[in-house]
Amino acid sequence: MKNPLKALDDFLIKLINQKLRHPLLNIFYYYFTHVGGMVFTSILSLGLVIFARGHLAKTSYQMLMALALNMMVVFFTKRIVGRNRPYWIEKNLHTYGIDLKDYSFPSGHTTSAFTMALIFSFNYPGYGIIFIGLALLVAISRIYLAVHYPTDVLAGILVALLGSFLVYFVLYEPVVEFIFDK
């Protein structure tokens, strides 16, 4: 008997990667996925830390802290779990030329995108639906491009939720107080 989560993963990745294929989506997701990548998130975070003022500066420090925490969790979890990427195992998946060497679980791009979206949503709640919507597009792109199973993406969202809540509601003020009150 097949594991129900594995069956759901297989069904969803084939649906999203094979059945929903469209030339415009191919181009959109291939490029948009980088919004959750290390280069984009690093440049955005560091740029905001350097140039932002007022409430946006505080938001940028929260985002940098949450990204650092969450990406450490992703880094170590990938090595502990060691889950193969879908296109390493499944046949007939369209990868659009992407060839990654690291493991699949959890999705780092999804974690980064949702971390940024959540921190911005906490600080600017009126725009939360936009931030979360953009993060969701990154998450879908990871499945569309066959580099992650849906459960990898879901795990990335959960890591982002836990770490972002922890930074925003618990860690930020004590860390800032510790650093600047010395």
Q: TL;DR?
A:
By secondary structure, the protein is an all-alpha fold.
Topology:
Elements: H1 4-19, H2 23-32, H3 38-51, H4 55-81, H5 86-89, H6 108-123, H7 128-144, H8 150-180
Helix pairs in contact: 2-7, 3-4, 4-6, 4-8, 6-7, 6-8, 7-8
Helix content: over 70%
Helical run tally: 8
Number of strands: 0
Report the structural category: mainly alpha
Mean pLDDT level: 89
- Cα distance, first to last residue? 60 Å
* H/E element order: HHHHHHHH
How does the major sheet shape up? none
| Regions with little confidence, pLDDT below 50 for 5+ residues | none
Q: Sum up the overall morphology in one term.
A: elongated
- Fraction of residues in β-strands: under 5%
Describe the structure.
74% of the residues lie in helices and 0% in strands. The chain is built from eight helices and no strands. It has helices spanning 4-19, 23-32, 38-51, 55-81, 86-89, 108-123, 128-144, 150-180. α2 (23-32) crosses α7 and α6 (108-123) packs antiparallel against α7 (128-144). It is elongated. The model has no long low-confidence stretch (mean pLDDT 89).
Descriptive tags:
182 residues, mainly alpha
